[in-house]
Design goal:
The protein has about 190 residues and is mostly helical. It contains six helices and two strands; from the N terminus they run ααααβααβ. Strands 1-2 form a two-stranded antiparallel sheet. α5 packs across α6.
Length: about 190
Amino acid sequence: MDDTCVLCTRCFQATDHTGHDTSFSVNSGTGGCCDCGDPEAWKIPLRCRHHSSFEELEEVGLDPIISSAGAPFVPGYKNNSECPVSVRRSIELTIAIVLEFILETFATSPINLTQHFDEMTIIEDATNASMALGDHEQQTKFAVVLWNDEVHSFQDVIDQCTEALQCSQMEAKKIAETVDASGRDVLRV
């Protein structure tokens, strides 16, 4: 057994630790991974109810946390080659929407942040981005979105919003709080 072996919370709660010597720590989120599926990491098999096959769990009388009907492509589970069409379509649609959002964000993000953008430049950039994405309709409505860039301070955002939007310090502070909490805020439409 390796002294550096760890389990994530999900796998720890899905295994039986009767008679085990355990300790807990909170990781800051960098490095390491769950050793649930590593047979060399443990003296005896853990039989995680998330990751073990039905046969392994049946040997010791444990029920899996997921069932064969809802576990496509998991070794040891029945029906592992079929995924319901409705689930597959939902996943495909979600991926398409996310990819479209990412592409549109990249296509419309300014490269040179020091460049001055007038109204015509913005309209031309939006038209080019729409054409690149296959949308040939003329855009008539635009939104100014402020993204959290993890670079500017809270006060920087307040100062810039106060100057650019001609708003009060209190209004700018609300914008900064929204950007900090949500990652973005729509400033103007």
